[in-house]
Amino acid sequence: MRAVLVSFRLDMARITVSSASGFVPFLLPLLFAVIFGLAGRTSGAADFATGGVVGSVFGVGTILPISAFSYEWLEQHGRMNGIIPADRTHQVIGRYLTLPVFAAIIIAETTLALAILHLTAHGNLNGLAQALTTSVLGSTWSFMVFELVLFPLFYRWNDMRKALLCVAAFFVGVAVLVTVTLYLVPEDAFNAFGDAVAQAMANPAVGIPAGLGVLVVMTAVSLPVSIVCRRRKEF
Amino acid sequence: MKLIISSVSGEPIYEQIKDQIRAAVLSGELAAGEALPSLRKLAKELRISVLTVTRAYNELADEGIVENIQGKGTFVMSQGTELMKRRARTRIQRIFDETCTAAKAADIPLLDLMAMLEASYKDQS
Amino acid sequence: MTTTPPMALSVTGATKHYDSGFTLEDVTFDLPAGYIMGLIGPNGAGKSTLIKLILNMIRRDAGQIQVLGLDAIADEEAVKEQLGVVFDTSYFVDTWSVDKVERVMRGMYRTWRHEAFDGHLRRFGLDRGKKVKELSRGMQMKLMLAVALSHDARLLILDEPTSGLDVLARDELMDILAATIEDGERSILFSTHITADLERAADFITYITRGELYFTGPKDEFEDSFRIVKAGLDLLDRLPAKACVGVHHYSTGFDALVRSENLPIFPADQIVVEPASIDDIIRLTNVGQSSLGEV
């Protein structure tokens, strides 16, 4: 629908910054890759390095959707959103459409960063392929899950401080969930379960449909909630 | 055509416009069949509201001095001049009636009255 | 050529209750196509609330709003295609260049007139390379106006566009607006508390005060229906209670806003009568209601 595209284009225009300084955060993971790679040469701690690099891409990636919201919040109650020929439902859908774009960006940057890591660490791209399927897909999937939880919260509380509290709450919530689970479930069983899931996911035939399935279900909940929150908002 | 509007004269702007257009038609400055400036253009140039000009044009049309032709504009009616001459005559007749009543009441003879009229007419060049 | 609906904007019984207690109550007015309407009233009267209702930025508690013959809620997207909006401050991302603003806005609308936009930029003296944040307030307003005039919008809504601008800039804007409605195809709703701007170009006035509609209709009729009466204080005591709409006392006399039809009440030899300007009318219908508080 045209209106959805209009909203999508507006959000993308808000996020793609014209000044050079906007790109700097996205160079940081590449920098980390170089640093970790150099460190890894000596200590051989490649796994840790992979985690660090992937994590940094994830962290930087979260700037993208927050930017779409924050321009709206900062610019006097989203007056631009009141002017464009797209109603609130279409505006929300348009913003959700930016998520696959961001996922693609995350995949691309993670791949690039890991390539740099391997090249810096041991001069070739051996082991990159394996790192890709596990780390890249995993981090991208986590990113999507993260945003699908955050979006309704951002639509509900239209405020940068509250948004960051939501982000913090998300991590705290996950930590609490893990702690509680560990408390209730014996560690062996938890680890066994974890290993079984990891093994199953590692098989693309299972992992990919399952991962997508979870995202679809989450979207089916997240999107309507966001729409309701946005439609209720008074500007 | 010259149109000068005063915002402080106390006379409503639409009346001023009407007066000045009537004067222009009477003097021949605006010829029969000639178009008046477009409503909106005049409003923009005089820096007044479109409705004000519309009212002036409509009232002039009601008087028969101009004609509004949908989609074309407003034109001076060929009998515009005639009409106004007739109006002027009626007004003058009324003034004469009043003058004569006043003159008789003050015992001023007709000849004196005519001399006063002649002096007045020649005075205004 | 598309047919222009007779009413550019039709508001019927618009009502909005805020939790704070402020209420916009039952506002009804029409703006015929091809004219400029000034939306006036003191600060906090409800003008911005009304504009937000038209833009569907807040929820309507009652009433109907039709823009160019379409319902403001049911046909929101079709309405906004034809709506050009100018606010008192820029709504663009301030790191965008003027050129980027065009690239963004042309993607928003079905029809985008590049040559028209270019022409406006040149006329307004806007440099494509400049970023929005580098533009002065007046230039930012002109940028919003350039956008509003470049996508075949048939109704322009300006919400306090001249606040913060000097006399020259305001005068220039009124010239631009008069030129905009010259072809009779476009209409303008102009909300302002600087009523001097409207003395010139406004055709209609809608006057809102304390959340209620006080008057709507031709501007000439508005001004004509009131007079300012000035007289000595001794006269004030002898007048019937409702003779004046609003009175401003001072030590040597008073100014009163009086409805024209009530003029005969006053003894002609004891008063000075003057025409009432829009400012006078607003001032004297809000005596004691200053936003600075009771004086």
Automatic annotation (TrEMBL), chain A:
Segments passing through the bilayer: 12-36, 48-71, 92-116, 128-151, 163-185, 205-229
InterPro entries, sorted: ABC2_memb-like (IPR025699)
Superkingdom classification of source: Bacteria
Keywords: Membrane, Transmembrane, Transmembrane helix
Pfam families registered for this protein in UniProt: ABC2_membrane_5
N-terminal signal peptide: none
Name the UniProt record assigns to this protein: ABC-2 family transporter protein
Source organism of this protein record: Bifidobacterium pullorum subsp. gallinarum
Lineage: Bacteria, Bacillati, Actinomycetota, Actinomycetes, Bifidobacteriales
UniProtKB/TrEMBL annotation, chain B:
CDD domains: WHTH_GntR
ATP-binding listed as a keyword: no
InterPro entries documented for this protein: Tscrpt_reg_HTH_GntR, WH-like_DNA-bd_sf, WH_DNA-bd_sf
A GO molecular-function annotation: DNA binding
SMART domains documented for this protein: HTH_GNTR
Domain HTH gntR-type: start-end pairs: 11-79
Entry keywords, A to Z: DNA-binding, Transcription, Transcription regulation
Protein name, per record: GntR family transcriptional regulator
TrEMBL record, chain C:
Species assigned in the record: Bifidobacterium pullorum subsp. gallinarum
TM region positions: none
Domain of life: Bacteria
A GO term for molecular function: ATP binding
CDD domains referenced in this protein's UniProt entry, alphabetically: ABC_DR_subfamily_A (cd03230)
Top EC class, one word: hydrolase
Domain annotation ABC transporter: ranges: 9-235
Enzyme Commission (EC) number: 3.6.3.25
Full protein name: ATP binding protein of ABC transporter
UniProt KW keywords: ATP-binding, Hydrolase, Nucleotide-binding, Transport
Coiled-coil boundaries: none
